[in-house]
Amino acid sequence: MSDDGVLSSLRYLFADLIGEEDDTPPFLPEGLPEAVALVAGDAIHMLIDYQSTSYAQLYVDRLRRFVGRRGVDDAMLGEIARLMAMRMSYEDPIRIAQLKLAEAGHASGAPVRSRDDVLKLRLDELIDPLPAIVSEYVLDALEWAGWLHKTVSIRFSANSRLGIRRLKIEAWLKRWRRYSVRYAKERVWVERWLHMIDRSLTKQPLAASAIIDTATMIQGYGEVYRQGMADWNAIIDGLAKPTFDGVLTLPDLAGAIAEARAAALPDPRQAALKRKIAEISARVPAGATAAAG
User: Fold this and answer.
1) What is the arithmetic mean of pLDDT over 119-125?
2) Is the model's pLDDT at 205 over the cut of 80?
């Protein structure tokens, strides 16, 4: 993580802790191309609704690190802006409730009938968005009971007073999201993704777009989200990081990432993906990796 990233994260966290929240939307970074400005502008408004203006400011601070950066053209900057907004608005139960209320029109004051959504979520996934001071004890108890990964079906409905009231309570919990276990994990992930983009621009610029696009591996919730996160870490730890560290010599890192992603299957054991990563690593000419180190 760069010094700018650390400072912006600390400023945001400090503002949260002391309750200092400015309602003024943050300004876009100077020098943004028009197309990128449109993407970033929409992202700012979405992230204010998702969390807060200071959270949107963190987005702007993160984006600013790549404005005018050598090797970052308009299209690449636009993808960073788009995918970072997507990942900063991860789908926890709070977000699902927000989206359900918006879909039903309750956020705009013009309610319409919408279909009920029944989602399969693990118990730890339901508890993670709560403040860590509470959730850590509950998670420990669930783990002790062997229920931590138990899957339950949760109905998100805006078609009754009780359903709407429950959705509003869940959406209201966004003010506690920044103190949650899940939130801390997501902040670390976004910063690591940005750090890998930064390292690629320095070490292997032709792979930067492939690194940026790996954010699309992690979407949704439940098993799909967990599989995507596990696969992302396997590819970054097995191919990208060793290449940037000089431990592994991959002249075409972008091609290696694409090949590994194509091998990824919905398999918790990641057998096919791990085999492919090992196969790609084994292609390195004898002595090349040692020479790189």
Assistant:
1) 85
2) yes
Mean pLDDT of 252-275: 95
For the whole model, what pTM was predicted?
0.84
Amino acid 247 reads: V
Closest CA to 217 of 257, 170, 168, 171: 257
**Biggest alpha carbon–alpha carbon distance for the chain:** 68
- Sketch the domain layout of the chain as residue ranges: 1-89, 93-177, 180-293
187/101 Cα distance (integer angstroms) = 26
Query: Is residue 44 pLDDT above 90, yes or no?
Result: yes
Asked if pLDDT for residue 63 goes beyond 80, the answer is yes
CB 11 within 8 A of CB 17: no
CA distance 92 to 250: 36
Task: Please name which of 91, 89, 111, 86 lies closest in space to residue 101, comparing C-alpha atoms.
Answer: 111
Buried b vs exposed e over 143-178: b needs ≥16 C-beta within 10 Å?
A: eeeeebeeeeeeebbbeeeebbebbeebbebbebbb
To the nearest 10 degrees (0 to 180), the angle between helices 53-64 and 74-88 is 150
Tokens of 272: 């096919």
